[in-house]
Design goal:
Layout: E1 2-4, E2 10-12, E3 17-19, H1 24-33, E4 40-41, H2 42-50, H3 58-75, E5 84-86, E6 89-91, H4 100-112, H5 116-127, H6 141-168, H7 172-185, H8 190-202, H9 206-223, H10 230-241, H11 301-311, E7 342-347, H12 353-364, E8 372-376, H13 387-396, E9 406-410, H14 415-424, E10 429-434, H15 439-445, E11 448-452, H16 457-468, H17 470-475, H18 477-486, H19 491-503, H20 509-517, E12 525-526, E13 529-533, H21 534-543, H22 547-559, E14 564-565, H23 566-573, H24 577-589, E15 594-597, E16 600-602, H25 605-615
Parallel strand pairs: 7-10, 7-11, 8-9, 9-10
Antiparallel strand pairs: 1-2, 2-3, 4-6, 5-6, 12-13, 14-16, 15-16
Length: 646
């Protein structure tokens, strides 16, 4: 005979099932089976059976209840499962063959020691043992208050692990049924909501994924007065940006459930799974990290081809063989005398330098057995990091293998930050992104320079299509072109506009473009994250410049139209022509000007709009009741700006 505790309390011989009627013996049996093989005190049993309304002779009444339970056992031929009276209480013997709760725990333990596919099959078998509402026929307030939630938590942890495995293997549609059901039964369970959002987004249903975030956010605020946990907030932002979530690294160990260590104490907590989140934890202040994916990358075809050709060249000393054993950063590369290939990507803030670097690095990653590492060279507040600090973190980064290493050195401010890292990575390769031209670095270490400008109209259209979906863009083709033009074909601006449209599925592209152009670039920002803001990005870029140079940029942008020449700049700034030439050269090097032809420069339309707004009197600026939070007002959590947007 088998006792079934995972549902209505019942007894079965494998063919017929007898659901016990709600009664005091049923409550007594449930209290004993929840702690099989352990002594359950008479006080606890009395509380489980009678609650606060205990009879005057509670001890005698308990003995009578035990007698009635033994008669039920005899009726179904299970005398060998008799309740045993011991000092201080009662005990019932059971094992995995006679109690489904122990069988469930046995399967979970077996799954933890198996491979992933076998683990999934075994955990599914364990979940199949649950047969409906837990202890639905047991009239015990104490058990429903203290024991049912604890047992239900065991099931939830197993279901969570099952969904993790399904998502890891890309079986998002298969897990949607489970996730829809459990999120409706447990509407405040943030981890299941997180999994559901991931599954929906990875099956092309980003609108539903964002709606699910809004549902749990409203529920938590209404019921508990709190916001969703940071992992959920980061996931929402990733969906808004159109990130490729890929296969999540859950960081969770296989589930291991053990019976409570002290069964006589009600409500003993179960061991928790290994801590983890959905994917890699945010890097602290710029720690070397594996390369993230680049969502919806479009355009830059010629630059991609040039960079791939540069980084996949293999010379006699660059094949990754014959190198020393891995163990430190400097040991990962080959030992040949050839200088490591270096590519410098420069351009205006938010123009997509890091996106291009990451995209290319992932394309050529197979040529670098030592691995590919991303290392930001500025802190979250925009200040440069010392080269010694960055080099120490590279030495501490775990080696991915033996051979050449590709470094992505992101957002360099000065050549001196980069040179020691190139020396340490002799035999490898590097992609360096910077708003500066880094001409001094190229002069001493060679390499190629790729200056990025705004996207072509076709590339902008492709980016909007990748983020918003072909149906929505095809429904308003002219409006899509207008929106790209309003955004100046600037990648960061396009991403922000697309994110706004994703969160407002009924907003037309034409209406969005019309709204944006009435206050550029102030409206190119997302209120919940200052990292996603064109004006704040440009403010940060100007903050890195000497004050006179930043003021010169604002004056030139706010008072001129068309091409900029040295004569025009000298007239606007009130300085000699030679000084004006030097100013424009430095602004060109900082990524704030583009060279149209020798002696003539151009400023991007968004930079001009930003300059006009920054220099306008306060009374002339459009007044807003709300504004995006500034960087210093928002916790940075040790993270830099989203990589695909720099």
């Amino acid at each position: 005979m088998l006792f079934q505790l995972l549902g209505p309390l019942s007894i079965t011989d494998g063919r017929d099932v007898v659901v016990l009627p709600p009664s005091k013996p049923t409550s007594l049996l449930a209290a004993l089976l929840i702690r099989p093989g352990s002594v359950v005190s008479t006080d606890h049993l009395q509380d489980a059976v009678w609650g606060e309304e205990q009879p005057t002779t509670a001890k005698a009444a308990l003995q009578s209840c035990v007698l009635r339970l033994r008669r039920i056992f005899a009726k179904y031929g299970i005398e060998d499962q008799a309740v045993v009276a011991v000092a201080g209480g009662y005990r019932i013997h059971a094992d995995a063959g006679t109690l489904d709760l122990l069988h469930f725990r046995q399967l979970v333990g077996r799954a933890a020691a198996s491979g992933t596919e076998s683990e999934l099959y075994t955990l599914r078998a364990a979940l199949a043992l649950w047969q409906g509402p837990l202890l639905a026929n047991v009239p015990s307030a104490l058990l429903h208050r203290d024991e049912v939630p604890r047992l239900a938590e065991e099931r939830l942890r197993v279901l969570e692990r099952v969904c993790d495995i399904e998502l890891e293997h890309g079986r998002c549609r298969e897990t949607l049924v489970d996730l829809w059901e459990v999120t409706r039964v447990y509407p405040a369970h943030e981890r299941f909501c997180e999994q559901l959002m991931t599954a929906l987004y990875r099956t092309g249903r980003q609108t539903e994924a964002l709606a699910e975030y809004r549902r749990i956010k409203a529920h938590l605020r209404e019921e508990l007065g709190v916001d969703p946990r940071p992992e959920l907030q980061r996931l929402e932002l990733a969906i808004l940006r159109g990130d490729d979530l890929g296969s999540p690294d859950t960081g969770r160990a296989p589930v291991s459930l053990a019976p409570p260590a002290a069964p006589a104490v009600p409500g003993t907590a179960l061991p928790r799974a290994a801590p983890g989140g959905d994917g890699p934890a945010p890097a602290r202040g710029g720690t070397a990290a594996p390369l993230p994916a680049v969502p919806g990358f479009t355009g830059r075809r010629s630059q991609v081809e040039e960079l791939v050709a540069l980084l996949t060249e293999t010379g006699p000393a660059r094949d990754g063989s014959g190198g020393p054993p891995a163990g430190s950063f400097g040991d990962r590369s080959g030992t040949g005398p050839e200088r490591a290939p270096v590519a410098v990507l420069s351009g205006a803030p938010g123009i997509g330098k890091t996106a291009l670097a990451l995209y290319v690095a992932r394309l050529v990653g197979g040529h670098y057995p030592g691995g590919c590492l991303l290392l930001p060279l500025t802190r979250p507040d925009g200040t440069p990091r010392p080269a010694e600090e960055a080099a120490a973190e590279l030495r501490d980064a775990p080696p991915a293998g033996r051979g050449r290493t590709l470094l992505v050195l992101d957002d360099a401010v000065h050549p001196d930050q980069v040179r020691p890292l190139l020396t340490a990575n002799a035999g490898g390769a590097a992609i360096v992104t910077s708003r500066m031209g880094l001409a001094a670095l190229v002069a001493t270490h060679g390499g190629t320079v790729h200056r990025l400008g705004a996207l072509d109209p076709e590339e902008s259209h492709a980016l909007l299509t990748a983020v918003l979906g072909p149906e929505r863009v095809a429904a308003e083709p002219s409006a899509a072109l207008l929106l790209a033009s309003v955004c100046g074909h600037h990648p960061l601006a396009l991403r922000i506009a697309a994110a706004r449209l994703l969160t407002r599925p009924r907003l037309k592209l034409a209406d969005c473009a019309d709204w944006l152009r009435h206050d550029l670039p102030a409206r190119l920002g997302l209120a919940d994250d200052p990292r996603m803001s064109v004006p704040l990005t440009l403010d940060e870029a100007l903050g890195r410049l000497p004050r006179p140079l930043a003021e010169a940029h604002l004056r030139l942008g706010s008072t001129t139209r068309g091409p900029l020449t040295a004569e025009l700049a000298a007239d606007v700034l009130g300085v000699p022509r030679e000084t004006a030439e030097e100013v424009m050269e430095r602004l060109l090097d900082a990524g704030l000007l583009e060279e149209e032809r020798p002696g003539a420069f151009r400023m991007h339309a968004l930079l001009r709009a930003h300059a006009r707004r920054a220099t306008a009197p306060l009374s002339a600026r459009p007044q807003a009741l709300l504004r995006p939070p500034r960087r210093e007002e928002t916790p940075q959590a040790g993270s830099t700006r989203p990589a695909a947007l720099r």
